[in-house]
């Protein structure tokens, strides 16, 4: 045994390398070259290599070379444990590759869908944006008269003049005689949006109201004279700018924006919300308005709705007063339909409404983009329907002509002051207002000496309606 150890350890005559100190070094020298090709053949095995040979092994075992290969973690020849591990790893790698391939395709498909959606969205935006007509001439005319215009009192409040065009030209000729394309303001509404956007008040201005119309510039550049005449003459002779200046002179309210809508735009908006429900106490048969409806609850489409809000001679007492009240009630029902059905919050339902509105809409430069209109609608969509109020400016038959109207003062002036200063206004049905006025008069007659009592100033109340009113319960 000692001889074998001496032979494998080297000559004992070497003083620097005693035999007892050689086994590990010699074992590494002799067995080292053999494991290297085995490690290259099985490069980077899956598991960590085991520990190397312990110091001072049995020289015979170290020189055999087998344990050295095991210690280095090299795969055994002939399909040992190492070869099986690599085969398993090959299968896992294929599954991972397929999974990565699938993830890449999913990401590409998702990116494509996003691009398509973005493209469609951009096309829709451009289409709606391009529908709007900008009234640059009115803006230029108003700028020339800036010094005479009222100064805004409450900066965050908005006052928008809504004008329903009565043009008989083009597609609108079926509703009356085409007089060469001239237009009148068939319906004019001053819409006041409170600064906190918690209320909206729409005040109708009768077309036959007698007012002071300033000198205005006509479409052919001529100057008209200042005159006292019926209100809708301003739109006929001087267009939108003249109408705005007339309203501002009458009310003292600065008009921030304006919109002009024609007949077809109104029809298409009603159709876009799938009609508006109303109730009729008696049937309607109006040949001029192209309207024939039975009594009771029913939903009007766009064509029927237009005839309903324009009919006058065959409904009620035939006055423009009742027609304005009917228009207000219908607009309230339209607003309620849009909010209750989630139209304003549903892009798929909102798009047809916006498309119908923008196609026939003419606005000032401050509202001539879809973004501007969206900001306006977004500010209104949280207004409670009971706070979306409609009324007509206090008026009475004109003393010199019963077929015309004049303002009732100081009631009209008080209303304009409330809106100008962004203060609240209340509306109630006409019969309730008359009953309240009778009760108030009775109290004053029973208590003549009532000057000593102090009470807060009541909110001015006018005859009108709100979008929350149910037309079938009135």
Care to describe what's here?
This protein is of the alpha/beta class and 474 residues long. The protein is built from 15 helices and 17 strands. 43% of the residues lie in helices and 17% in strands. Strand 9 and strand 10 form a beta hairpin. The model is unreliable at 1-83, 175-182 and 449-455 (pLDDT under 50).
Strand line-up in the sheet with most strands: 1-12-7-2-3-4-13-17-16
- Determine the structural class based on helices, strands and strand pairing: alpha/beta
Low-confidence stretches: 1-83, 175-182, 449-455
Number of strands: 17
Radius of gyration: 44 Å
Distance between the termini: 123 Å
Q: Report the portion of residues in β strands.
A: 15-25%
Silhouette: globular
Q: How helix-rich are the residues, as a percent range?
A: 40-55%
Nearest-integer average pLDDT: 75
In short:
The chain is an alpha/beta fold.
SSE layout:
Layout lengths: L1 H8 L13 H9 L3 H7 L17 H5 L2 H6 L9 H51 L1 E2 L1 H9 L13 E8 L19 E9 L6 E5 L5 E4 L13 E4 L2 H19 L5 E5 L1 H10 L3 E5 L3 E3 L4 E3 L2 E5 L1 H9 L9 H21 L6 H13 L1 E3 L6 H11 L7 E5 L2 E4 L2 E7 L3 H10 L5 E3 L1 H17 L14 E6 L8
Parallel strand pairs: 1-12, 2-7, 4-13, 16-17
Antiparallel strand pairs: 2-3, 3-4, 5-6, 7-12, 8-11, 9-10, 13-17, 14-15
Helix pairs in contact: 6-12, 7-8, 9-10, 9-12, 10-11
